Amino acid sequence: MLETMGERENGLGAGYACYGLFPEHRDDYCMQFFLDQEEAKTQVEELLKSKGSIAKDERVYTHQVKSMRPPIPIIWRCFFRPKRNAEWQGRADLSNDDLMVQLAMHINSDIPGALCVSSGKDMAVFKGNGYSHEISKFYDLGRYSGKMWLSHSRFPTNSPAWWGGAHPLSILDWAVCHNGEITSYGVNRKFVEMAGYRCSVLTDTEVVTYAWDLLVRKHGLPIPAAAFAMAPWYHDDILRLDPESARLATWLRLTYKEALLNGPFSIIVGRSEPEVTLIALADRKKLRPLLCGRSPDGRTAYVASEECAVRVVEPEAETWTPNAGNPMIAQVGKGILRTGTEHPFLGVR
To answer: Are the CB atoms for 179 and 53 separated by under 8 Å?
Structure first.
């Protein structure tokens, strides 16, 4: 699908996220790292052992691709189990997920030469500097199979082209691929940092990833409500809603005004908890392309920037475009829960 949209690539970043990847370690947090040197690996191991146990660790399999330019980091994976009631810097009130977020951000910000690329259960991110076909060969992705794949080929504009900045960006089981530019990055970054997140990758996609975790996992918003907070309707449109929906829409706009993502974007979002879920969302003016599809047997959902990417793998797919600021939601085992053309607050609860 990515190679069909090859004109969108420039070789400066591509990546993949796979869900349902490690059933034998389903209850462990799978942490994958980019490491500049062995000293960084040692520091990461010591930190993790002080906060829990490592059920298994291994170097992530990679295959030399001559066209990829060095330097290439050490890529390491561990399956981690936090201690029960583990403390973080004097706090014992954190859930395991909260602890994992704090661990990942501490590693990214405070351990030189170390970057936690993904930290969710039963999922992992595979990315780097290169074209999509180079990254696929580099990680030999044919050895993996899962329930859902996300992929993206990045064309960096306002942030550096480096291994950590390639998409997807991930925290816990969230993974985000983003096409566009978030012009409200400054206020969005302050919003997530006020909630305890630490931005170290310095891309707008990183902030979007943390916002999904904050609104859905921490604040408990349903996915359609969180999507509305990020891409809300204009006030004139809200006035045309029924009174109850108009009150909810106004409340979301006022409460989460710092979460509003301004600028052109289309994003795809994956998560594995409580079920493997795919979310697709375009900005409220639909300035970036987004197309959804479903296989004739209804067993596979697709999202892409261009229809050709869907047709190349499923010529008979049913395709449609979701409305601006309205999420398409699909879930493994349940199919498509929202097409993105419904009432803004209809769907997952």
So the answer is: no
Taking each continuous run of H as one helix and of E as one strand, the counts in the chain are 9, 16
Query: Where does the pLDDT of residue 158 fall: very low under 50, low under 70, confident under 90, or very high at 90 and above?
Result: low
Say if residues 52 and 80 touch (Cβ distance below 8 Å): yes
Nearest to 149, CA basis, from 343, 8, 39, 300: 300
Residue 31 and residue 111 in contact, taking contact as beta carbons nearer than 8 Å: no
Backbone angle region of 335, left / alpha / beta, with phi > 0 → left and psi within -120 to 50 → alpha: left
pLDDT tens across 276-334, in order? 999 999 999 989 999 999 999 999 999 999 999 999 999 999 999 999 999 999 999 99
Residues in Cβ contact with 128 at an 8 Å cutoff, skipping those fewer than 6 apart: 13, 14, 15, 68, 72, 135, 138, 163, 166
User: How many degrees, rounded to 5, is the angle at CA 41 between CA 35 and CA 45?
Assistant: 140
* 164-207 per-position pLDDT tens digit: 889 999 999 999 999 989 999 999 999 999 999 999 988 899 99
Pick the closest to residue 207 from 166, 179, 169, 264 (CA basis): 169
Tokens for 341, please give them: 């053309």
DSSP state string for 112-139:
TTEEEEE--BTEEEEEESS-HHHHHHHH
d(CA 180, CA 82): 36
Mind listing the pLDDT tens digit for each residue in 76-118? 999 999 988 777 777 778 899 999 999 999 999 999 999 999 9
Q: Which domains does the chain have, with CATH numbers?
A: 3-338 (3.60.20.10)
Describe the crossing of helices 204-212 and 223-230 by its angle, rounded to 10 degrees: 140
- Helical axes 96-110 vs 38-51, angle rounded to 10°: 150
CA dist., res. 320 & res. 194, Å (int): 38
Q: How far apart are CA 306 and CA 309, in angstroms?
A: 6
The DSSP 8-state label assigned to residue 87 in this structure reads -
Of residues 6 and 224, which shows the higher confidence score?
Answer: 224
